[in-house]
Amino acid sequence: MDKPANGYPDMENDMGSEESGSAEEESLNNEEGPHPDHSALSWVGTLRLGESVYDDTLLAPLVARSHAPRACLLLFLNFFLQFMVLTRVGAMVINKFEELEDTIFGHTGLCDSSSMQDITEFNMIGVPRPPADTRFLNCVPNEVFFMLDWGKLDINDDGYWSPAEAYALTEQYNQSQSEMTSTLSRMVFTLKASARMVQKMSQYEGNEDAMNQANEVRSMLEAANGSLPKSVYISQVEPFLRLCLLMDSRLCGNAVFRRSLNRSVFMNEFHMSAFHGSPLPFLELSPRTAGKFRDFTQACPIIIDIVCPSFFTVTYEEYSSKRKEVCGEPSTETLQLPASILTSGSDRMNQDVLVVDFAMFEQHSGQADIAYRLFLLLILLLWVIAMFEEYRTIIHWWRVLLGTPIDVTILEAQTDEERTVSMKDFTLCYRCLNIVFNLLPRTCIAIAILFFGARYLVLSQSYEELMMNSLALTFLVTIDEMIFVAFVSTKRREWLGNANPLEVKIHRGSDTMIACLLSECLLVPMLFITVIAYMSYEYNRTWGKDDVEEAFRCICQVSGQRCMAAQVVGGYPTVDDASAHDGEQ
Asked: Taking residues 448-476, what's their average pLDDT?
């Protein structure tokens, strides 16, 4: 059969000749579809064989049965290699998503979802109060947030937080992180120990405020018999709680620059009590200050690294350690606070502060940028386009193997070993075997490659990684061609090169539908809509890329409007917001 320049048979001439055929043929053609549509739809039911182990397995057994085992062996080798690589890629994708979600979210993760009712106060400045239905990220142990609300601790409102109330609090909230009775006992023990140490320290012998505070707090705790009096909570616990929410002493400078915490804020909370000077745990750990709280950036690390772990259970230390593992290496820069906001000499000591970013936060924050989103969209578009060729070929395969063959010659025999192959040799049994052992696995693998490949690209965390992953994925769709080039004999290559296209009779309904599906007018918009919808899903779904970025912001920076700890700590939502505000002044 003559072939035009595009490689497909000239169906117009064939159909023209068929019009002058027998009445039986004309009747059959009228059933399949009107003649004017035949030339336009002929390409749908035409399959041109190429250099692939799939095509080799389809043709070689018909040309020479002795080549069938070798062709089938290469086909199964191809499926085995594709399956092994695809299985590994799929496992990597699934494990990566599960690892990310298990580390950050869920029962064993660092963050959980909470409602507005769980937040005791909103101290963030420069932003409106969040809507009532906002879901916040709680990335701090629950025991710290419970301690922020005295009303939640003192259930019977008698002015004491008792062991019985601590146990009831644990039961009420089904607390699996730690027993609040342990938190209570640790706080009482720590405060008693601090009071005793201050009483014995020579640095405070002449300090009346320090000694009076130590004597009074110790006597109140001993009289409370294991409970925590409200007055002791206000003077000795509450001033430290907002600092304990930071969980990393390297964030002290960030908190100061964001106007979240400074000496004035800390001392204002302490001075709400009847005492003067500084809380007992700080006096014990900083005897050289003579009881004066002056340099906040020097005192902040002491509080976070020593006082907070002594107040809370091992869960607090576990969260702190995991947080450091998750956030990665820090990068530090010096920023300067505006002189206009420094109202005291002690505050002016901290005009220059060290602000820290962490590697994993920067990485995930970069993925939220519009530039990275557009680049990811481009790579996903190119990946889907690369897969379109395979899908078009698969559609033609299904159409030809499920259609009614036309009696045309596919390959003329050149030697005694070969057989002349025509479409009538593609019997129903032979086509079913190829569907089950050739086409169906190929289709499933192609779908899996597209799905896991797209998710694999979405998991990329930088421009370089995205480029490398996209190049690596092209290896998956060319395994069959590499095996063909490496192992198929020259003779079988010649058969495929000389073979005429496989053709089946036109079926107007199905061919019209396939032609519409494969037309560029539909494919191009469908491509963009599908990829954009998938990207939107991956970014906006629950625990998607946007949630992950917010979670890393909350864990590593204690910032962001959806971060519960950041709302309580207060100040501007992020360091960048504070810098922008300073730039406007």
From this structure: 90
Containing 12, the helix (H) or strand (E) segment is helix 11-19
Helix ranges restricted to H, 344-487:
345-348, 359-367, 370-402, 428-434, 440-458, 463-474, 479-487
Structure tokens at 120: 């005791």
Asked if residue 312 lies in contact with residue 244, where contact means CB atoms within 8 angstroms, the answer is yes
Beta-ladder partners of 405: 504
What are residue 47's DSSP bridge partners? 502
More confident residue, 52 or 120: 52
User: Mean pLDDT over residues 430-445, rounded?
Assistant: 96
Tokens 């494919």 sit at which residue?
523
Which candidate, 495, 550, 488, places its Cα nearest to that of 77? 488
Q: Check residue 161 and report its DSSP letter.
A: E
Q: Which amino acid is at 4?
A: P
Closest of 342, 346, 376 to residue 457, by C-alpha: 376
Q: Strand pairing partners for 137? A: 113, 563
> Tell me, what's the pLDDT at 176?
63
The 10s digit of each residue's pLDDT in 332-384 is 999 998 888 777 777 777 788 999 999 999 999 999 999 999 999 999 999 99
* Averaged pLDDT score across all residues of the chain: 87
**If you count DSSP H runs as helices and E runs as strands, how many of each does the chain have, helices first?**
31, 10
SS3 403: coil
**With b meaning 16 or more CB within 10 Å and e meaning fewer, what string describes 3-26?**
eeeeebbebeebbeebeeeeeeee
pTM (two decimals):
0.80
Sign of the CA dihedral 369, 372, 377, 378? positive
Q: Mean per-residue pLDDT for 387-411? A: 92
- In angstroms, what CA-CA distances link 180 with 145, 190, 485, 487? 11, 15, 68, 69
Tokens found for residue 101 = 């979600």
Long-range Cβ pairs for the range 220-223 (8 Å, 24+): 221/188, 221/191, 221/192, 221/195, 222/192
CA of residue 542 relative to chain centroid, distance: 10
